[in-house]
Amino acid sequence: LGSYFDGSQSGPFTGNRSVSGRWPGAAGGSPAGFLGLQTSSFTDFLAAYSPGLLPGRVSRTGGDAGISPAVRDLPHATTIVAAVCEGGVVLAGDRRATLGNMIAKRDVEKVFRSDDYSGMGYAGTGSLGIEFVRLFQVELEHYEKMEGRSLSLEGKANRLASMVRGNLGAAMQGLVVVPLFVGYDEDSGQGRIFSYDVAGGPYEEQRFYSIGSGSLFARGALKKLYADGMSADDVVLACVQALYDAADDDSATGGPDLTRRIFPVIATITADGFRKLSEAESEQVAEQVVRERMSLPDGPSAPLRNG
Amino acid sequence: VSMPFGYVSPAQAMRDKAEYARQGIARGRSCVTLQYQDGIMLVAPNPSSALHKISEIYDRIAFAAVGRYNEYENLRKAGVTYADITGYQFDRHDVTARGIANWYAQTLGTIFTESLKPFEVEIVVAEVGARPSDDQIYRITFDGSVTDEPSFVAFGGQADQVSAALKERYADGMSLSEAFAAALAALSTAGNGEYTAAQLEVAILERARDHRTFRRIRAARLEELLAESRPAAESSDGDGSGGEDSGAPGSGDAPGSGGATGGASASSEGSASTPAPPADSGPPTGPTPGSSDRGTGLSGGSPL
Fold this sequence. Notes:
Chain A has ten helices and 13 strands. By secondary structure, chain A is α+β, with helices and mostly antiparallel strands. In chain A, a hairpin with a 2-residue loop joins strand 12 and strand 13. The longest helix of chain A is centred in the middle third of the chain and has 22 residues, at 126-147. By secondary structure, chain B is an alpha+beta fold. Residues 235-304 of chain B have low confidence and may be disordered. At the A-B interface, helix 3 and helix 5 of A face strand 3, helix 2 and helix 3 of B.
């Protein structure tokens, strides 16, 4: 299973560079080479120009000997939740990165703006996730500048899918990273959620979704708390409740840290664009949740019978 | 020593190429880039709303070009690629207008010497800094010469005239509408009459913005600016009108921009050699005139 990310297959834009360069001196990375290597996809450009810069390019040596302990002991990012709200979508993530049964980092951020109307979070190998986010951000901006328009939301989701698929080789050697992509669809005026597996995707999710080690608990919580047509503020609260429940039952997910003032990263994406909640705002929501749990440790309960 | 048949001396070949490129560039309309209070403004007459002369290169860097569309579009895309790869490899802060201007200079220089047909383009790369004194405006000509322009620059088309008119009206620390009025008045001296919103392409680099500072000014906002600039433009039309048909700037306080016949070479000399107006010193704006790199090609004319 090769892809142009690991060099076993040539990318769509690799080819013979001295042919694509317009001047004899343009071949082989000289500055004029950019003139012959233009594409609206930054990832494809990178694959042709400097493939070593692509995330997840690991050497194939020892690849058959199973997952090396060195790879297994990399920090892993954990739980991300997303839910559609009235006129947009909310994305939130806990702050913990784990290293086996150790806590590698307490204040890691894994929810990011990918462009004005979309955002992403990731679960899995931390270092690879960071590179993924950076590459995807540049990918979207590059397209926008080259073509003079943004990609459609589906276009962005599909683009991310091919990037995830490109990482399959590395994923099979243990460097797994899976994103959760959300965005505001300017055509329909609604928020949308796309999930992925290691082989790509995207799978469009309805209403709410969660990824990462605590995702089962978070999704269970959201299932009971979520209602259609909730306002952004309510969905933010529901997401933080879900993250609390995930942290409650999953050791790899971090809950709100009141002593160190570390709270979930929360972002809303609406017609006004991507907005990351300020420290003070997320602190307020997190403190409210913790306060309520003092009397009800399992959180709000859903009615058993309707009506 | 007998010369082979059809021999053209390198000096002659370079002169011919330069002449060819200059004529191509002078055929178009001028474009203007200038500092204002809150950033940098770029204004170009452009009837198309889809084929841009002014574009975003990076977070704080804009691109403006005149000449042949296919050629400068190619350069624009290459510039975006250069900026994106640099920012991805290092950090977003490591992408600078100076780096991009240098890259354009090398590329255009190589094309000018190595290829049969030179690019008929002139480019401006502008970067908005944290303070007005950190703003940078670079002008790159078809042969790869770079000039570091303090405060403002007019290029392409009747660059001499427009530059002289802009120099008269430019002042440090102008507001957005004042700067737009100055740019519009300067562009109008090239004898194309009044511009409507549909004929103009306007963009700004907004200093105070985070992340991407490039914004296009379109439709309603542009109409608004046009309406604001009208009274100002009319009152200043009186002094500028003398230069319209004669082809030379009306008032005599622009010493460097005498011969309008010199085309692009004279214009580069004129705008680069004139120091920023010292009298109205509000905030310190733009690099000092002494720091401007005059390049190698155009100002002297001899290497061509």
